[in-house]
Specification:
Layout: H1 2-6, H2 12-38, H3 61-89, H4 95-120, H5 125-148, H6 161-168, H7 170-187, H8 209-237, H9 242-267, H10 272-296, H11 302-306, H12 319-338
Helix pairs in contact: 2-3, 2-5, 2-10, 3-4, 4-5, 5-7, 5-10, 6-10, 7-8, 7-10, 8-9, 9-10
Length: about 350
C-alpha cells in the first residue's frame, strides 16, 4: 500500500484543478455557515462536538441544519487535506505551494475549534465575528494557492509601482468593511438562536447600536466603492494587464450590487433571505479583491523600468555583435601573448 501511494505523482495541471476545488469548498462553507446563523440554528446542537450528547442529531429542524453544517465542514476538511497531500506529491515539487496548502487544513482545524468555543459561549458576538474573520483569512491562502498553482505563468509586463500599490490599498479597506459588516450582523435581529435562548448581542450604543453600525458599515462600503472605481480608472489609463482590469471590473460591479442589496434589506427591515445574499456577495467581493491583488502582481523593478531596449539594425543582423566579437578576439590574442 505504501509503495502504491509512493508511486502516485500529481501533475501541475491536476494540482491546479484540486487547488480551485479547495477554494470553492472554502467559499461554500462561508455560505452554509451564514445559513445556520440566519435560520436561527446556531444553537441547534447546544454542545460540541456531539449534538445533545449523541454522535447524531435528533430529528429537529434546527439541530439537523446545524449538524449538517458540521458534516459539510468535515467534507471541506477532507478536501484541504487532500490538497496538502497533493502538494507534497506534485512534480516538480514546489515549496511555496506546499506551505500554502498546509495552511488550509490548519485553518479548518482552527475553525472547528473556534466554532466549538462559539457554541459553548452561546454565540457571543466576539466569537461569531472571529469565526467569520478566520474564514476570510483562510480564503487568502486558498486564493494564493490557486493563483500560484497555475500551470502557465503570465507573460505580461509587470505593472508600475503606483498601480500595484493602488490595488493593494484596497485590501485593508475591504478588511475593515468586512469587519464592520460582521459587527452589524452581531447587533442585528439575526442572533443565530431561537426565541427564548439567551444570545448575547452587541449593545455598546444601547438601543441605537444597530442603527449606528449600519450607517458606519454603509459609509465604509461607499468609500470602498469610490476607491475601487478610482483604481479601475487608473488601471485602464495605464493599460495594466487584462487579468487585473477584469478583476477590478468585477469588483466594482459586485460592490454596486452590494449597495443595492444593502439599501433594500435596510428598507425592508433585514429579511433573512436578503441578509444571506448580502453575506454571499460580501464573500465574492472579498475574493475579487484578492484576485485583483494577485493579478496585478509585484511592481516592476527600477532596473527593469530603466533598461533600454536593444534592437537589431535592419539589413545588418550581425552589426550589434561584431564589435563584441572583435573585442573578445582581441582579448583572447592578448591573453595568448601574455602566456
Amino acid at each position: 500500500m505504501r509503495e502504491r501511494i509512493a508511486r502516485i505523482e500529481m501533475t501541475p495541471r491536476r494540482f491546479e484543478l484540486l487547488a480551485y476545488v479547495a477554494l470553492a469548498a472554502l467559499t461554500l462553507i462561508v455560505a452554509t455557515g451564514a445559513a445556520v446563523r440566519l435560520s436561527d440554528s446556531g444553537l441547534g446542537c447546544p454542545d460540541w462536538p456531539r449534538c445533545y450528547g449523541r454522535v447524531y442529531p435528533p430529528l429537529q429542524t434546527h439541530a439537523l441544519i446545524e449538524f449538517s453544517n458540521r458534516i459539510v465542514s468535515g467534507a471541506v476538511g477532507v478536501v484541504v487535506v487532500l490538497a496538502a497531500l497533493a502538494a507534497w506529491r506534485r512534480r516538480p515539487f514546489r515549496r511555496d505551494l506546499m506551505i500554502l496548502a498546509l495552511l488550509l487544513p490548519l485553518g479548518v482545524v482552527g475553525q472547528a475549534v473556534l466554532g466549538g468555543y462559539t457554541v459553548e459561549n452561546k454565540l457571543a458576538p466576539g466569537f461569531v465575528m472571529a469565526h467569520f474573520a478566520l474564514s476570510m483569512v483562510i480564503l487568502i491562502a486558498a486564493v494564493a494557492l490557486a493563483w500560484r498553482s497555475r500551470e502557465h505563468e503570465p507573460t505580461e509586463q509587470a505593472a508600475d509601482r503606483r498601480s500595484v500599490w493602488a490595488v493593494r490599498s484596497l485590501l485593508p479597506l475591504a478588511s475593515i468593511v468586512v469587519f464592520a459588516g460582521t459587527a452589524t450582523t452581531a447587533a442585528g435581529p439575526h442572533s443565530g438562536g431561537l426565541a427564548g435562548q439567551q444570545i448575547k448581542r452587541l449593545h455598546f450604543e444601547g438601543a441605537d447600536t444597530l442603527n449606528w453600525t449600519v450607517h458606519v458599515h454603509g459609509a465604509l462600503a461607499f468609500a470602498l466603492g469610490i476607491a475601487a472605481v478610482a483604481v479601475w480608472v487608473l488601471l485602464e489609463r495605464r493599460q495594466a494587464n487584462a487579468q487585473a482590469r477584469r478583476a477590478m471590473s468585477w469588483l466594482c460591479a459586485l460592490i454596486a450590487l452590494q449597495g443595492v442589496v444593502g439599501a433594500v434589506q435596510y428598507e425592508t427591515h433585514l429579511p433573512t433571505e436578503l441578509v444571506w445574499v448580502h453575506v454571499g456577495l460580501a464573500s465574492l467581493s472579498w475574493l475579487c479583491v484578492l484576485w485583483s491583488v494577485a493579478a496585478i502582481g509585484p511592481p516592476a523593478t527600477s532596473r527593469a523600468r530603466k533598461r533600454p531596449q536593444i534592437r537589431a539594425s535592419v539589413g545588418h543582423p550581425t552589426a550589434a555583435t561584431s564589435g563584441t566579437g572583435a573585442s573578445f578576439g582581441q582579448a583572447s590574442d592578448h591573453l595568448r601573448g601574455v602566456s
